Amino acid sequence: MGTDWAPAAVRGAARRDPGELVRLTRAHARLARALGLTLDTDPPEETDPPEETRPPEETGLPEETDHDAVLARWRDLDERLRSLLVIDLDNPHRAAPRQREHHEAVTRHGVLLDQAARAFSRTVPGAFTRNPPPSPASEEPPRDTWVEEFLDWLDPVVRAGQGLYLWT
Q1: 68-111: per-residue pLDDT in tens?
Q2: 82, 95, 144, 161: which has the fewest Cβ within 10 Å?
Q3: Cα–Cα distance between 83 and 100 in angstroms, integer?
Q4: Alpha carbon 156 to chain centroid distance?
Q5: Which residues contact 163 (CB under 8 A, 6 or more apart)?
């Protein structure tokens, strides 16, 4: 089991009145984050009323901290959301691997090691200094083949007027 993006189109009834679709989508995303299925990368919507003034089914915030209860709420919302969408589960795209996170962690660790080596060298006699060579500056960011593949897969989905559904 993994996490995939699947093309999704809005059914006619939901297209005429998108309010419920918007509420379910936001609640679905919030519960998915609470379950650890996705990262919390979205800033709060400027047009959203304060969460404490909205009912729990609209905020998606778990009332209980019990994983099973939160999962049950997420599944209920997922079922309601899917009823408003036509989802193409035959054409998914696998979400980005976690090795990118590892690469970023190693890079951060390398920066810390470089800083520690330079700090050490400032406090010891010259024969004991450690001055690692600076990392070469990259004029162009490294290519991310997953992002390129994802955008190639996404282009016909967008051209068909579809959106994406995060399928876990």
Answers
A1: 999 999 999 999 999 999 999 898 888 766 666 666 766 777 77
A2: 161
A3: 34
A4: 22
A5: 7, 8, 9, 10
Across 45-106, the runs of DSSP E, i.e. the strands, are 85-87, 93-94
CB neighbourhood size of 116 (10 A): 12
Task: Report the residue count for the chain.
Answer: 168
Is there a contact between 33 and 40 (Cβ–Cβ < 8 Å)?
yes
Give the model confidence (pLDDT) of 13-52 as tens digits.
788 888 888 899 889 888 888 888 776 655 555 555 555 5
Token output for 138? 């990259």
- What is the spatial distance between Cα 168 and Cα 160, in angstroms, rounded to a whole number? 23
Side chain identity at 58, as an amino acid letter?
A: E
Strands (E), 25-156: 85-87, 93-94
CB contact set of 24 (below 8 Å; sequence gap of 6+): 77, 80, 81, 84
The residue whose two tokens read 């990118």 is 100
